[in-house]
Amino acid sequence: MTVTVATTPYDDQKPGTSGLRKKVPHFQQPNYVENFVQSIFDSLEGFAGQTLVLGGDGRFYNREVVQIVLRMAAANGFGRVLVGQGGILSTPAASNVIRRYGAFGGIILSASHNPGGPHEDFGIKYNIGNGGPAPEKVTDAIFARSMTIDRYLTIEAADVDIDTIGETALGGMTVQVIDSVADYAALMETLFDFDAIRTLIGSGFRVLFDAMSAVTGPYAAEIIGRRLGAGEAAVLHATPLPDFGGHHPDPNLVHAKDLYDRLMAPDAPDFGAASDGDGDRNLIIGKGIFITPSDSLAMLAANAHLAPGYAKGLKGIARSMPTSGAADRVADALGIPLYETPTGWKFFGTLLDAGLATICGEESAGTGSDHVREKDGLWAVLLWLNILAARRESVAEIATAHWARYGRNYYARHDYEGVDSAAADALMAELRAGLGSLPGSTVAGLAVVSADDFAYTDPVDGSTATKQGVRIGFEGGSRIVFRLSGTGTSGATLRVYIERYEPPTGDLAQETPIGLAPLIAAAEAVAGIARHTGRTEPDVVT
Ligand code: G16
Fold this sequence. Notes:
Elements (H helix, E strand, L loop, with lengths): L1 E5 L13 E4 H4 L4 H11 L8 E6 L5 H15 L3 E9 L2 H10 L4 E5 L11 E7 L8 H11 L4 E5 L10 E5 L2 E6 L3 H10 L2 H9 L4 E4 L5 H12 L7 E2 L20 H8 L6 E5 L6 E5 L2 E3 L1 H11 L13 E4 L5 H9 L3 E4 L7 H5 L5 E4 L3 E4 L7 H15 L3 H12 L1 E12 L1 H14 L7 E2 L2 E8 L2 E2 L6 E2 L4 E5 L4 E6 L7 E11 L9 H16 L1 H5 L6 E2 L1
The structure holds 1,6-di-O-phosphono-alpha-D-glucopyranose (G16).
1,6-di-O-phosphono-alpha-D-glucopyranose binds next to loops.
């Protein structure tokens, strides 16, 4: 029986870069989850009798929210919900399920790479029928509705068994519990040459994948461990835990340091990789060499034709603005367009749907293609393995040859986390106010040639996004970008992206911090990071 429950709005349910992310106790406030979910449903039209996909990264509170959403979906008139077994679906797997079964949309429960647990982070995100994150016009509508909401709909019913594959009736709706891995693994088999990768691994090539006690464990165990024959020991931290074992499931050099150390050791495996909480990010480390996400995008794009799914070539490449220009050079060489979008995978959706881009990537450890509408951690790992199997060269050899041909974009991102929001806003405001006078000036000895605040017009639907990051260009093609993260849950996170291009004839083997030192000094000089935030060092460098 449908029940209408009176509620009052919360004023902080504005989705960020990727859905609504808050601390668990924040989500546990009375009606907080219900308000947001009802605001999603109230912003959509035409879903009566349709299918919704539901799953999450298994973090603390996942199972409880699955039950809340199931009851509300039934009350709101969905015909069927496809839910991953145990409430588990990686973000790319959820995107695939939405597309494969022609679902109306999906709700993904995740705070991505943020830590999990009773006092850590949780998140709710809505994806549309193309399988991708809701575009801003939808998230704006959800937020607007959340500000006026006065009731939500649910049904009185016991919890559904979400651990057993099969169908259950819930009110007038069917709940179908599906295998979390099967459809995704089948999709990967259509894109990559599993035989060639199996042969590579069979010949003694050693792979180590760190699932970081997060959602990719079961996916990697099935695909890398079983189907590709690397064995159980090739997948570290393979069991998803509600608190990710107390770690940040963030595949970067800080939080995946153990993996990094193992790949730098004398007896290192040939290839190391990791993925994040919800399985959409990736970290790629070859024996003795870390590949930055921006370089990984460029190298994957340059070699993608070696995988069966991309043998016909790429239609275009898209990258977020702060991502380095390494992929631009590959697009140039391939004679295909390069699209520069704001940060947020949602901005790639229209380009992928319109067939303008095949491969997309972001500096924030995300790469993916038109096979789904999310970035995809395991996909990137498998494409790398396919390329390694086809070229029979090491990661280091592939990277060195790439730089020798295209030049190298030295790149680092400095994150200042948990900064006082007012201080971070003041820093950005001051930067914006000074943009007009920067070109032609010199900062810490470097000549500024351009300065602006990135604005974007989507070439497909004409939608616009402004204030997407302050970028300062220097003579010789170096660049610093400043923006505030849209995914944090406490205070503000200032991101400073630093890039310097070295042509093929230049020094391609510098240590990155040394290569970037003059720009790091310029970032401080132009933005007054220490003056505004009190911080003299970033918390995380990636
Ligand atoms: C999300 C978005 C990405 C974005 C990243 C960082 O990733 O999907 O497109 O690059 O956040 O965003 P920000 O710099 O605003 O924190 P994820 O993996 O957290 O879902």
